[in-house]
Write a structure and sequence with these properties.
mainly alpha, Rhomboid-like fold, three-stranded antiparallel β-sheet, 9 helices, 9% strand
């Protein structure tokens, strides 16, 4: 299921959501300009679990150098489909979460979700040497916040039915629950695959961790003054 847009107008201009999309897009363009230097760039700024947990093996590397990729990795992407998909979800669901939290709190919320998601991935894949990049973990937090904040908002969704594609409106709670279940079972399967091959792939557990943290944090962070929940019935 691919969300196309939601019927949930934002009460405020989503300045931080747009800024994050611009930052991610700008960084991706910069990546494209690096050419053969991109591999070295990823080694420095992507999230690499084995590198993060190897502190005792290389004391010359500062703690700060190990922590920085937790932040920088969420602004890097592995390809056009990767960044377009992430930014599409952020555009659809980010404005309403920003509307609830307010601009500054939404930015803090987004960064915490991204860092927590990245750490979740590392804890469950501590020996992986595959660079992990993408805003998916932070955006998963946004989806988790949307899930509990606007469960009955209608989302216009492209749904494949056998060999046909159809567009229907479904409640956000159904779409996002389906998304979360897919991430969870894909993550469970990835553990078995990684155990057999030692390879890497999609950071499914970063998505799961980000989503759960987003669900929790959005209820801890105070809503902005003047925010009112809308009825979708």
């Amino acid at each position: 299921m691919i969300p196309l847009r939601d019927r949930n107008p934002s009460g405020k201009f989503p300045g931080i959501t747009i800024l994050l999309i611009i930052l991610n897009g700008s960084m991706f363009i910069y990546q494209l300009s690096l050419g053969d230097d991109l591999t070295h760039f990823f080694r420095s700024y992507a999230l690499i679990p084995a590198q993060f947990f190897s502190y005792g093996e290389n004391s010359r590397e500062s703690i700060a150098a190990r922590l920085i990729p937790l932040f920088t990795s969420m602004f890097l992407h592995g390809g056009w489909l990767h960044i377009i998909g992430n930014m599409w979800y952020l555009w659809i669901f980010g404005d309403n979460v920003e509307d609830r939290l307010g601009h500054f709190r939404f930015l803090v919320f987004y960064l915490i979700c991204g860092v927590t998601a990245g750490f979740t991935h590392m804890v469950l894949n501590p020996h992986s040497s595959v660079p992990c990049v993408g805003a998916s973990g932070a955006i998963a937090g946004v989806l988790g916040a949307y899930f509990v904040s606007f469960p009955f908002a209608r989302v216009i969704t492209l749904v494949p039915i056998f060999f046909y594609l159809t567009i229907i409106e479904i409640p956000a709670v159904i779409l996002l629950f389906f998304w979360f279940v897919l991430q969870f079972f894909s993550g469970a399967l990835s553990i078995a695959v990684t155990a057999q091959t030692g390879g890497g792939g999609v950071a499914w557990w970063a998505h799961v961790g980000g989503f759960i943290v987003g669900m929790i944090l959005v209820n801890i962070f105070p809503s902005r003054r003047g925010f009112r929940r809308r009825s979708f019935f």
